[in-house]
Amino acid sequence: MIQAIVILNAGSSSVKFAVFALAGGDLRPLYRGHFEGIGTDPHFLVSDADGATVADERDSLAKVASPEDAVPRIFAWLGSHSAGLEVVAVGHRVVHGGPVYSEPVVVDGPTLEALTAFEPLAPLHQRANLAPIRAVAAARPGLTQVACFDTAFHRTAPLVAQVYALPREYFDAGVRRYGFHGLSCEYIIAALEALDPAAAAGRVVIAHLGNGCSMAAIRGGHSLGDTMGFSVLDGLPMGTRCGQIDPGVLIYLMQQRGMTVDQVEDLLYHHSGLKGLSGISNDMRDLLASDQPGAQLAIDHFVYRIGRALGSLAAALGGLDALVFTAGIGEHAAEIRARVCRDAAWLGVALDEDANRRRGPRISEEGHAPSVWVIPTNEELMIARHTLRLLGRSSSPRQGEATAAVHR
Ligand code: ADP
Description:
Elements lengths: L1 E9 L4 E9 L2 E11 L6 E6 L4 E5 L9 H15 L3 E10 L10 E2 L2 H8 L9 H14 L4 E6 L9 H4 L5 H5 L9 H14 L1 H4 L2 E7 L3 E7 L2 E5 L20 H9 L5 H10 L2 H6 L5 H6 L3 H25 L4 E5 H6 L1 H10 L9 H5 L13 E4 L4 H12 L18
Parallel strand pairs: 1-6, 6-8, 9-12, 12-13
Antiparallel strand pairs: 1-2, 2-3, 3-4, 4-5, 7-8, 9-10, 10-11
């Protein structure tokens, strides 16, 4: 019987999952898949460790109406497809650990209650993240479940970086800068340690540029702060989210334009960012391929805002030893990386154009500081490592590095 860990990353209409086999104290990727279009047009897709599609179903999924419906289907597929697989734990990506959790945690009844209390801090995400925990607890009582938080890594940021300039009572009530994409940051720092240990121990900025985008300042492996704040709306412009915006705009929209809170929320989360500014698409590939002025402006603004954030984070760090690009845009859009690096020449960044086209991993000129890297992120592997550790089964922070070069 092969022991395995299942990783679940649930959103409001999708559940992504990954399965790792425990090989000794090591993690070996077995499957990666997702349920998408839950509630509308569900699609179940799974690939194996070589990237070959092993499941692709649309029919017979009509009853999958919510993320919690997807969970038993995933387990049923695993049971029927991989006879001989014993699931020993489930690790979950949970967006919010609130002010309390600075580490992943084994979920029991009281913990689930505490995490439920953070739902108002991230109403669009937290409920969707917790539903599969309940579904697994109902279907497999006694199975170890671990919650890994996007906020936890940033809990080390100093108070001065966590407060808003509001009366202190709001901070005490939870209105503070949390920061997100922490699992990605942790993975990247561990991977950078293998490539450039001195830089990883120094002053690092990670640019996580996917559908959601954020940049984090990390010194000595610890977060000093993040461009995302109280919510995942702050900081850089994203696929459909606005990023940093003058709060006066929100007051104007509600007072003068008569928009409701729900309408403002919908605008800021779903119709802004690259999509809103370009009027074309939230997908960087579409914008790079377009000759429309809106696409150009959206790209120019995106690069401009990354440059401003980089300057601000480098100031917080007191300098810069390494810059890392990751996630969909960071890993694949050489043109965006090149523009950001050229604009950062004032920080000493010297781009190696050939290395950038080859996707590095090092894309700065040899011997030049700061070093610049492209490192594919792997949040699922990070969750699997934490889960393994909390099962009392792992030793090294870079556990499974050799075997876990999972396709993405
Ligand atoms: P998520 O935040 O949902 O995990 P990803 O990290 O997968 O998203 O990033 C998705 C985004 O990456 C896409 O919307 C697209 O804009 C961008 N992207 C993916 N591949 C490319 C590419 N080859 N060139 C430019 N952008 C890309």
